[in-house]
Design a protein that fits this description.
The chain folds into two domains: 219 residues, Obg-related GTPase Ych/YyaF, coiled-coil domain (DNA polymerase, domain 1, Orthogonal Bundle); 64 residues, Ubiquitin-like (UB roll), CATH 3.10.20. 40% of the residues lie in helices and 21% in strands. The protein contains twelve helices and eleven strands. A five-stranded mixed beta sheet has the order 2-4-1-5-6, with helices on both faces. The protein is flat, with a radius of gyration of 23 Å. The structure holds guanosine-5'-triphosphate (GTP) and magnesium ion. Guanosine-5'-triphosphate (GTP) binds next to helix 1 and helix 6.
Length: 312
């Protein structure tokens, strides 16, 4: 399953503009707060210079970058925000481009809206579980107790992230997930410009900018916030980058590629991407003893090139 981020922000902050910049999906931009509740969903490729180098080395016919799923919901409101409970992180966009913009103030308002949505969510769950608990199930009665305490905590103006106890399974609050603030405008990231550049071919966009893409910076910060690493598979048919969480194993890497690979996992050849490059080929890397054989429990490192042996 791809990692997922949700874009949140006050009306007209530039959420859909950022969505288009990240995904190149060309979703409709409106100058007024959207009247529809249609969310935009797309994939944002993670730029990685190592990938192109590896692909060139093995003569790959196809290059596939790792990608993050991006969800853009119009407006705020508990119902819409509720659709984001399953994402891994939030991108909070604030207006830093219009006259009299107050991005810091807007960020506070937005955080408050997230908290209100969570409060609403806890209250509704309390109502539902409260009814079920009448059957006398002790687990449910305990959950009712905990939910009541959580509600009181939030009502006292404290964020859920400061709740010391354990949260009930599947509560999925919005205010406890990583949140990356992005100011849309000249002193932050110019989302409108990035969205326009995203429509150009890579080399033209590159020629236009002096530095790296602001979007790469967003992705980098996301990777950092989520503790993500990248591993590669380097085949001549396809060379590809994949995302894992730091600490995940070769078996989990296999499962990311295909469930069959995890099921039939035998062992895994591992080489660091730069060792493979400096060797010039897998064969030469093996000769120089830079390639290792690892098992299911090997903890994958950022920059590993994996070749997983499996049978099904
Ligand atoms: N000048 C300028 N205008 C921008 C910028 N970003 C967005 N806009 C404009 O602001 C308006 C709203 O942008 P959207 O991306 O649709 O904003 P949104 O947050 O998705 O809005 P809703 O989904 O309606 O809540 C559009 O007219 C954009 O062209 C920017 O960086 N500079
Ligand atoms: Mg929008």
């Amino acid at each position: 399953m791809a990692l997922e981020v949700g874009i949140v922000g006050l009306p007209n902050a530039g959420k859909t503009t950022l969505f288009n910049a990240l995904t190149r999906a060309g979703a409709e931009i409106t100058a007024y707060a959207s009247m529809t509740d249609k969310s935009n969903v797309g994939m944002a490729a993670i730029a990685d210079k190592r990938l192109e180098k590896l692909a060139a080395l093995v003569g790959a016919r196809k290059i596939t970058p790792a990608a993050i799923r991006v969800v853009d919901v119009p407006g705020t409101g508990p119902a819409l925000l509720g659709g984001l409970r399953q994402v891994d992180a939030l991108l909070a966009v604030t207006d830093g481009y219009s006259d009299g913009a107050d991005p810091a103030g807007d960020l506070e308002t937005l955080k408050l809206e997230l908290l209100v949505a969570d409060r609403d969510h806890v209250e509704r769950r309390l109502e539902r579980v409260g009814k079920q608990a009448k059957s006398g199930d002790t687990g449910l009665r305990r959950e009712v107790e905990v939910l009541g305490e959580i509600l009181a905590h939030v009502d006292a103006g404290q964020p859920l992230s400061e709740w010391k106890g354990e949260l009930p399974d599947g509560l999925d609050p919005l205010t406890t997930m990583p949140l990356l603030a992005i100011e849309n405008g000249p002193s932050g990231i110019d989302c409108k410009l990035e969205a326009e550049l995203a429509e150009l071919p890579d080399d033209e966009a590159l020629a236009f900018r002096d530095g790296p893409s602001a979007l790469d910076e967003i992705v980098r910060r996301l990777q950092e916030a989520l503790g993500l690493i990248t591993f590669f598979t380097a085949g001549d048919k396809e060379t590809r980058a994949w995302t894992l969480r730091a600490g995940q194993t070769a078996l989990e890497a296999g499962g990311t590629i295909h469930s069959d690979i995890a099921r039939g996992f035998i062992r895994c050849e591992v080489i660091r991407w730069d060792d493979l490059l400096s060797s010039g080929s897998h064969a030469e890397a093996a000769k120089r003893a830079l390639q290792r054989l690892e098992g299911k429990t090997y903890v994958v490192q950022d920059g590993d090139v994996l070749n997983i042996r499996f049978n099904v």
